[in-house]
Amino acid sequence: MRIDVLTLFPGMFEGPLSHSILAKAREAGLLAVEVHDLRRYAEGKHRITDEPPFGGGGGMVMKPEPIFAGVEALAENFGPGKVILLSPAGKCFSSDIAKRLASEERLVLICGRYEGVDQRVADYLADEEISIGDYVLSGGELPAMVLIDAVARFLPGVLGDPEAPHKDSFSEGVLEAPHYTRPRVFRGWAVPDVLLSGDHGAVDAWRREEGKRRTLLARPDLAKEEEEE
Questions:
Q1: Which of 87, 89, 91, 169 could form a disulfide with 176 if both were Cys (CB 3.0 to 4.6 A apart)?
Q2: pLDDT recorded at residue 19
Q3: Residue 155: exposed, middle, or buried by beta-carbon count in 10 A (0-12, 13-18, 19+)?
Q4: Residue 169's pLDDT is what?
């Protein structure tokens, strides 16, 4: 998979892309991520990428020209891809969306800034708008990093266990069961006996029940959705 990111702050991506699973996936050729400075596609001596909004109001709005030019230049060089605008107005990101996007050959992520982007980007350029939650961030860079990390986990070969992403929290509508490791007793708190029993069937049953219990306690909204389905 190839992911192209259009942003005013390309330096923000250096750390997350250079460590852990994402770095290994890139080194193995399973994932290619290229970050592009939107200013390269802006016109004029000063490479202006934002303007005050029509109708007044505070803040600045990202201009459509550099964004359209950037996406079109990337399509010309690397072929068409699914264009995603990271936006508070988008559909809330989920494990199901990450899994769906992982089936794409190429993604183009547009990172908004300031008061947002010209609406014509959402209406006529982006294939999809995605938000990572009901809160406001300074820009789309952090959401783009979240999306890249979540999508990468579904790519074949990225994780050591190919079934791992399908066992993670949210993959089956519930949270994962608690995990424990050595020591067996820490400050008087012991690991549940069933995990030490060697009975894999009992362990699996315990994990299913604990996952349901945790979901009811911590995310009753997920439990309700599961019941409705």
A1: 169
A2: 96
A3: middle
A4: 63
Over the chain (229 residues), what is each successive 10-residue block's mean pLDDT? 98 97 97 98 94 93 98 96 96 96 98 95 98 95 98 94 70 85 97 97 96 92 67
- Site of tokens 């209406």: 123
Question: Counting Cβ atoms within 10 Å, is residue 101 exposed (0-12), middle (13-18) or buried (19+)?
Answer: buried
Structure confidence at residue 225 (pLDDT):
66
**CA-angle at 122, arms to 117 and 127, nearest 5°:** 135
Tell me, what's the pLDDT at 160? 82
Query: How large is the C-alpha radius of gyration of the chain?
Result: 21
Q: Cβ atoms within 10 A of the Cβ of 11, count?
A: 10
Q: Specify whether the CB–CB gap between 214 and 178 falls below 8 A.
A: yes
What pLDDT shows up at residue 166? 63
Position 229 scores a pLDDT of: 57
Element (DSSP H or E) covering residue 90: strand 82-92
| Contact status, residue 35 vs residue 12, Cβ threshold 8 Å | no
User: How many CA atoms does the CB half-sphere of 102 hold within 13 Å?
Assistant: 20
Please list the alpha-helical segments (H only) found in 36-81: 64-78
Say which amino acid occupies 43. E
Point out the residues that are catalytic: 88, 115, 153, 168
The owner of tokens 């050729």 is 29
What is the maximum span of the chain, computed from C-alpha positions, in angstroms? Answer: 71
Cβ(111)–Cβ(86) below 8 Å: yes
